[in-house]
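Thread: Newbie trying to understand structure tokens

Hi all, I'm a second-year student working on a class project, and my supervisor (Dr. K.) asked me to get a predicted structure for one chain before our next meeting. I've only ever worked with sequences, so writing a 3D structure as a token string is new to me. If someone could post the tokens and maybe explain what I'm looking at, I'd be very grateful. Here's the chain:
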Amino acid sequence: MNSVLLKNATMINEGATLKGDLLIRDGRIDHIAAEISADQASEIIDCENLTVIPGCIDDQVHFREPGNTWKADIASEARAAVLGGVTSFMDMPNNTPPATTREDIARKKDIARRSSLANFGFYLGATPDNLEEIKSLDPRDVCGVKVFMGSSTGTLLVDDADILRSIFRSAEVPVATHCEDNEIIKNNSRIFQEKYGDEMDASIHPLIRSREACLKSSALAVDLARETGARLHVLHLSTAEELSLFEPWAALPVPRRQVTCEVCAHHLFFNDTWYQRLGNRLKCNPAVKTEKDRQALLKGVRTGLITCIATDHAPHTAEEKNAPYSKAPGGLPLIQFALPALLELVKRNELQIEDVVTGYCHNPAIRFNISRRGFIREGYWADLTVIDTTAPKRVTPSIIASKCGWSPFTGITFANSVVHTFVNGNHIVDNGVLKNINCFGTPLRFDR
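---
Reply by user tm_fold:
Sure, no problem. This is what the structure looks like when written as tokens:
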């Protein structure tokens, strides 16, 4: 493997800014110093005026393979990931068929080994009857158990309290939950259907999938974690009210928090006024809510109450999204432009770049015990993202790598660009263009 020297880089890592050089050798970060001799590397990249951060780790994606590969697959979405500076992802189990056994996980890993430019991990899906599978998991090989406590199709919905309690008690890996109360959603849907019928549009989505539905389900998950001792990670918070549930752990360092939570890029960037512009292209579960909620979530990131930032990347075709509101699926393709969107929030002074690095790079590695990734440290895998914070880039259909071919960010010009991405030391994205497309990522290992 070639050695690469990043010269004159501004490195953002562990809350500090370091100006200097970084040497990549044999896939690892070999040396970091104020100055490293150029004769130690076969490739030199001048990073003057560029910012280097650890490769982003997205702890929640839906890459659709196996099953729904007409709208996305691991190869296409991993390309989108690395173009967006994401070097590792953790994929959810709601495939067709769902990934609810160790054999299902092994099959997904085999696909990823042959096709993913990014590193990969996979969740096992909890069902009402696969408790023995959960008990038999090797904690080093699986990122977590995903529990759909609401808003799921097929066999993955688990809303019986006794079954949930057994799952929480038995899991030796983090339990990641989608929290929306199904009964509240059903009741709201009936009310709005009777009131508006076919006139319903996406603007009512946050009223159907309401803050009450989110809060009730998240509170149940936290109560179950307290009772059982489970390591709980509540996904994609969307309301101000939910944040108070996590305050009992906020003073602890992340490795010592039994209960943590995550926010997604779209809940930080958009609010409910965007439904008028985007319609069903902003329809996601849980719903994007008010500006007050957005501001509370931003504050949660700034204060460290919210541990991780992710995307919940969930591609659907434009044709599916163009259906009437009640038939259009929920989910957004986000992974390619999540980091630029977060850096746009930095430009607006709503976040600091250190907040982004902590939430999208460091804390996912800490929370899920990922081995030697998520930081710029000597000896760690050289998963790195290089950003030009002064190079604007407009989101147009021609640059979208996701197989679904659209983005809720289309038409937006971000003030920054991802220029280089390294995965395991391989220079995968060079000046914003895919390179070394046969250098595939590796399975994430978890130090448990």
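A couple of things are worth pointing out once you decode it. DSSP finds 13 helices and 19 strands in the chain. The longest strand covers residues 4-13. Feel free to ask follow-ups in this thread.
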